[in-house]
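This week, look over our next protein:
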Amino acid sequence: MSLFEEMDTAVVELDVNDCILRVNGAAEQCLSANRDRLNGQTIENLWGVPDALRLALADTRVDLRPRRLHECQMAGGFYDCHIGILEAGHLLLEFHSIGWNRQQQQLQQLEVQTGLLNLLRRNLGHEIRNPLGGIRGAAQMLAAELEEQELGTLAQLIIREVDRVEELIQSFWQPEMKREPLDVHRSLEEALQLLETEHGSKVGVVRDYDPSIPEVNGDASAIRQVFVNLARNAAQSGAKTITARTRVEHDSALFEHHQGYLIRVDIEDDGDGVPERLRPLLFLPMVTGRRDGTGLGLALAQQIAADHGGLMSYDALEHGSRFTLRIPARENGHD
């Protein structure tokens, strides 16, 4: 194996027309595509190449000066990029991953989020559920006494609203997650088909799947619910197009000894995005940017991800949002 292939740094060589001549294994991860698909492609036309890199390449062609870019959001994560100049007008791009540090920060945030969610669960159970039982019982007695009178209708309304709050609280007590082989694409498809049924042609859905993705061990119903929440959030943000993308990701901070690989699912939209003030708090319970939102969907999605040994994350796009679920793949058919 050549030194070029052994490098941990992602390396891409471009010809005079910015077409890809060669990439190493790390670059396949960075660009989220295999070399057979990459070779001969113009880097500007690849998905996930940020405008800042495109502009830097154009400027380098003009003044023939090397450049460095920090925190480039590529298809495969976040990288610092160095643009070097070779002979015959060729360029060498070196990408140094900084995704590890970002995931470490996200994992630390997850510990805080999980602690707050558990605290909220306990408080909901002891401080809210018990009084709700008394309120519902009293409302039932009123409804039976008043029957068809107007006040009886109000009593029925109280019962319905109490039941609604009870359902909301019950959603915090997830049953024990199953551990069985599941096809992520199947769960994702079920969620997207539900979205298409609910919104019809108002929202376009783009599917960009990696068919080689293996199964994961987990609870198909819970994973499906994560995708349903993400797809609905995207639609409710005013998105016209939602893109569902699946990829394999290596060397994650989720693994203690830097071993194994993840299944990565991105749900992107071109909607209104998340207000900047909410982004650091996004996966905390009761945080929502909508008047009619409960603030529970993303917190529960993060909890489901954590129960599967995974992680949810958010990235703001130029137009819209990207939510990413990472969960460990099954290795050789085992956990």
Q: What stands out?
A: The chain has three domains: 3-97, 102-170, 180-328. The chain is about 40% helix and 25% strand. The two ends are 31 Å apart (CA to CA).
